[in-house]
Structures are given as C-alpha cells and as structure tokens.
Amino acid sequence: MQKESIVLGVSGLIIGFLLGVLVGGKTMGGNVSRAPSAVQNAAPMVNPADLNARIAEMEKVVANDPKNLQAWVTLGNDYYDANNPQKSVQAYDKALALNPNDPNVLTDQGVMFRALGFFDKALANFEKANKLNPQHLQSLYNMGIVQAVDMKQPAKARPIFEKVAQMAGSSELGNQAREMLQQLPR
C-alpha cells in the first residue's frame, strides 16, 4: 500500500536522524522538532488538481451515501495523500464505524493520529490492528516507531522490532526493523 511504503521509508530516515542527534548530543538550534509521520515526496507524486478533484468527488459520494464504506476509505486515503490528517482521521472514523475491524484502515488512521501528535491514539490503533491480524506487520512496525521515536521508550520498541525482523525475514520491512534495532540504545 502506498501509505505503508511512505511510513516505512520515512520512518527509517527519521529514526536515523533523530538517533544520530540524540547519540551525538547535538542539535541545530537547540531543539529537535517532532518528526513527521510521512513525507509526501516519498510516494509517486499525485497531481494536486487530480487529488482535489477525487476528494471533491468522494465528498459528494459520501454525502449521498453515508454508508458507502469504500468511499469513506478512499476519502480517508485521499486526505492522507493530501497531507490533511484531521480530515483523514474523520473519514477513517466513518469507515471504522461501518467496519471496525479493518487492520489497514486502523493502521492508516494511526499514522494520521501520529501526524497530529496523538501518539497514544496512534499506538492504540496499531495495537488493535495487530490484535485483529497478528500477521499485519505494518501495524506492528508502526507500534515500534511510536515507542522508539515518539514515546522515547526503546526498551518497549526493541521486542517489537525483533518480532517484525523475524516475521518479515529479508523483506524491506524486515530489513528496516533490523536497522531500527541497530539504532536503538542498549
């Protein structure tokens, strides 16, 4: 999924930078700002006009058919891509009201909660997604990111990344989990 790839790529970069700053003891100007959860240019660029047109179309669809699960998910994804986390969270809320057990939507909404700085809510979404589907490695990996980066709890992040590394094998996600493990303080 496009959003999962964004989170994976950016998370690795952000963690490397933040841990480098923390380990090196230096910051450029005193404080390290909270890292964003995604960088839009990490994904294939979407023409903003096309994205805005899709959003307008989906807003019409859900206004006429508020029980249209796929339209709410699509709208949430489009707001996600438009870097509008608040509206994305709201659209995902509507989708989850219709289908509360979708680990992908829970994970995507968790990423948007993280972008808004609601780390506890993000973590709760990732935990629920992983409980619903223990093979949902993206939610598990994101739990590790929140623990390591946002909550500054590397001891809680370590077993999460170890599990992802083991379960994901030599995949990109497995390699990223191993990189995270190397960057965590002992």
* Broad shape: elongated
Determine the mean pLDDT.
Answer: 82
CATH superfamily: Tetratricopeptide repeat domain
Poorly predicted runs of 5 or more residues: 5-43
* Major pleated sheet: none
Helix content: over 70%
Strand content: under 5%
CATH topology: Serine Threonine Protein Phosphatase 5, Tetratricopeptide repeat
**Radius of gyration using CA atoms only:** 17 Å
Multimeric organization: single chain
Number of strands: 0
SS summary, helix count: 9
Keywords:
186 residues; mainly alpha; Serine Threonine Protein Phosphatase 5, Tetratricopeptide repeat; 9 helices; 73% helix
Could you describe the 3D structure shown?
- With 186 residues, the chain is an all-alpha fold.
- It has one domain (2-183): Alpha Horseshoe (Serine Threonine Protein Phosphatase 5, Tetratricopeptide repeat).
- Helix content is 73%, strand content 0%.
- It has 9 helices and no strands.
- 35% of the residues are buried.
- Residues 5-43 have low confidence and may be disordered.
Structure summary:
The protein is an all-alpha fold and 186 residues long.
